[in-house]
Amino acid sequence: MLVAAEPSGDLLGAHLMQALRGRLGRSVRFVGVGGPLMKAEGLGSLFDITELSIWGWAEGLKAYPKVVRRADQTAALAVREKPDAAVLIDSWGFTLRVGQRLRRRLPRLLLIKYVGPQVWAARPGRAKTLAKTFDHLLSILSFDAPYFERHGLAVTKVGNPHLMRSFAAADAERARKRLGADRDDQILLVLPGSRLSEVERLMAPFGEAVTLLKRGRPGLQVVLAAAPSVAEAIKAKAAEWAFAPHIVEGEGPKLDAMKAATVALACSGTVTTELALAGCPMVVAYKVSRLSAALIRMVIKTRFITLLNIAVGRAVVPELVQDQCQPTALAQALAARLDDPHLRQEQIAAQNQALAAMGARDGPDPSEKAAKVIVELLNGSA
């Protein structure tokens, strides 16, 4: 059983399925919950994960009855299908509830958590909660293990799959041809997130910020990347902008656009690591409800929300969060980078330093390592 409730987890799950199939053969069968990438690998998902792609405490409280119902249904699926192991990927709130139900209803089932909660940033008590429920943690961060091992949970660091993202096939010139852009035209790439709540909160200020930039830069090419999980919502919101951006869908066009972009405006998340790997300077923004923001401030222990910044303890990329996430401030931060090639090069160099601090990019494939550990656990040799 594999369970992933967000697009980033869907990507991890799809790669893990490929690696497990390579080790266990074509006869291995997968059940559970996932998105389009896992479905393409043969998973029949119990439900559409977009309904659980939420972030923020207030938002989570609203969705709580649905989360509980879906967790009950996922556990019931496991009882019917009797999997040999369950791997629950990221998405702390949902996967914890699924794990707790699986532990009660199938006490002998091998329970593996893939990606631990960021207890080093907030709510360290989650480490103890995780240790009570799961048999093993597959960690993607080098500094995770001590927080969980002190509570008796076995941890294997498999590495960060997002650091292994290859841009070898990405082509900046191909992106420019799609846009009809000249070699000297600047390109702004806008990535408003993969959760519906992110799109609803960010598309309006992002659109207004881009409009401010376009007024002084009529030749600026604006590319809007639409994640599959929220593509229709992004298109509907983009139709309300003062001008029509170029919309790209799919991994290939997105990676091409990252290589071609002069600067990016991005929702905080996995995509910031991808942008850094592509060598693209960025401005990061995020916004949740005021209640969620107030609750988060009470428990958060880090100064930053972007993993690049957390890794080096300084603002490698600018973060405009909550009240700072407004059109004028966003436009000013982007304009500074569009107008100053030296500033762009400084930021790219700093982003590369942060990537190095996050972990090696030339080691074993994390998905292969994760699959190896899972098979060893199934065989009782780990």
Overview of this structure, please?
This protein has 382 residues and is an alpha/beta fold. 50% of the residues lie in helices and 14% in strands. The chain has 16 helices and 13 strands. The protein has a seven-stranded parallel beta sheet, with helices on both faces. A six-stranded parallel beta sheet has the order 10-9-8-11-12-13, with helices on both faces. Helix 3 (57-81) runs parallel beside helix 4 (92-105) and helix 8 (196-216) packs parallel to helix 9. The longest helix has 25 residues, at 57-81. The model has no long low-confidence stretch (mean pLDDT 91).
Write out key terms for the chains shown:
382 residues; alpha/beta; Rossmann fold; seven-stranded parallel beta sheet; six-stranded parallel beta sheet; 16 helices; globular
Measured on Cα atoms, how large is the radius of gyration?
A: 21 Å
Mean pLDDT: 91
Strand order of the largest sheet: 3-2-1-4-5-6-7
**What CATH first level of the largest domain would be assigned?**
Alpha Beta
Major sheet characteristics: 7 strands, parallel
Q: Which residue ranges are poorly predicted, with pLDDT under 50 across at least 5 consecutive positions?
A: none
- Strand percentage: 5-15%
CATH architecture of the largest domain: 3-Layer(aba) Sandwich
Number of domains: 2
Q: What is the CATH topology descriptor of the largest domain?
A: Rossmann fold
What is the H/E order? Answer: EHEHEHEHEHEHEHEHEHEHEHEHHEHHH
